[in-house]
Amino acid sequence: MMSTPLTKATPGSERPSLKAGARMLYLLPLVISIAAVLTACGKDEAAAGKGGPGGGGMPPANVGVVTVGQQAVALQTELPGRVEALRTAQVRARVNGVVLKRLFTEGSEVKAGQALFLIDPAPYQAQFDSANANLAKAQANEAQAAAQAARNKPLADAKAISQQEYITSVATAKAAAADVAAAKAAVVQAKLSLDYAHVYAPISGRIGRALVTEGALVGASDATQLALIQQVSSVYVNFTQSANEVQAMRRALAAGQLRSAGANAAQVEVVGDDGTVYPRTGKLLFTDLSVDPTSGQVTLRAEVPNPDGLLLPGQYVRVRVAQAELPSAVLLPQQAVTRGSTGDTVLVVGPDNKPAPRKVKIGNAIGNQWVVLDGLKPGEKVIADGFQKMFVPGAPVNPVPFNPASAASGAASGAAPAASGAASR
User: Fold this and answer.
1) Residue 425: DSSP 8-state
2) Model's pTM, two decimal places?
């Protein structure tokens, strides 16, 4: 049985009402979904606002902190220097001639008095033989003149010969003795020239390459250099420091801001170009008393043991020398300090465990640490590790003692997955 509508629809009004109803049915699920999302977001914000583990928020991040403490720190100055051999000898020719033999191995250790070169000795052997012959002749003449003077003495006393004749015989004997002395000197000179034909090492040390070869003509007039010997078992390191820095340090010492480094003041460390510290320390020998007028620098010299021959003459190095000491200084790991154009800053954990930036004054570097001159007080906690865990600036953190070993291993382990991830990509 069909029911009769109470009102009669007018023609054309039934189709629009059906379309509007269809639209409402289509939009109803979308409106319900949006309302559900907004409700969930509101709950999350409320939970996050409560904070803490009990409230469902993120726990404070663990950060490694260093507790500020004061200690005596030696101020090391790093200066450029140059290595110099302890002793150097230039082997040169002392006679003219042709080099017949080289009697050493290039680059080897030689002893003082060891034969190095042989220059043709034949001409000097002939001169030596001639000098000996002249000496024998002079000695024969001396003997004859002396005998004649001895015979003339009683004759002169007996008035058998004139006094003038006796005086002449005595003078002839003395002249013959002088000729003998001259002949002996000529023999010595000839022997020296003969010996100089054999070139010996003047000192012990390491000899370099030969500067002449067999068959080369060398001369004494230009003192031809044959080789170079250097003693490098210990070496000198010459370095310079600004005269202004020296004066400033002396004024600070006089004012009590610094104190003498004591026994360490005479010790120096040598650092290579690659940053490697030489395993043996040297000692400071002297500081020059004058200032170079062209550069305003003061020259210093240190002696460093070099039994392994790692330091080579002429090599440029860096020299660290402790010239003074801060009686109460603060040391921080270098990774705890942020350096920028506007200054140096650190993050200090306050009583509420909230980190806050603090400007500090940085001095010298000692190893992997900075010397902090101003800006921190004893007992304060400075963040040195865990910066990457602090997602929200100013949020509370959980300070734990800084462990350099674990920080280094964590950085290495973090770098390895990143590298493997990059390789997989």
Assistant:
1) -
2) 0.60
Q: For the segment 250-299, what is each residue's pLDDT rounded down to a tens digit? A: 776 676 655 555 655 677 889 988 888 899 988 888 778 788 888 888 88
Q: What does the alpha-carbon distance between residue 48 and residue 172 come to, in Å, rounded to a whole number?
A: 129
Question: Measured between alpha carbons, how far is 396 from 387 in angstroms, rounded to an integer?
Answer: 13
Q: CA 129 to CA 134: how far, in whole Å? A: 9
DSSP 106-143: TT-EE-TT-EEEEE--HHHHHHHHHHHHHHHHHHHHHH
Measure the CA–CA gap between 281 and 121, rounded to whole angstroms: 48
Stretch (H or E) spanning 230: strand 225-242
- Is the Cβ–Cβ distance between 134 and 183 less than 8 Å? yes
CA angle 11, 12, 15 (to 5 degrees): 125
Q: Are 396 and 349 in contact (CB under 8 A)?
A: no
Q: How far apart are CA 127 and CA 239, in angstroms?
A: 51
Q: How many CA atoms lie within 13 A of 94 on its CB side?
A: 16
Structure tokens at 65: 């902190």
Q: Is 307 exposed, middle or buried (0-12, 13-18, 19+ CB in 10 A)?
A: exposed
Half-sphere exposure of 49 (CA within 13 A, CB side): 6
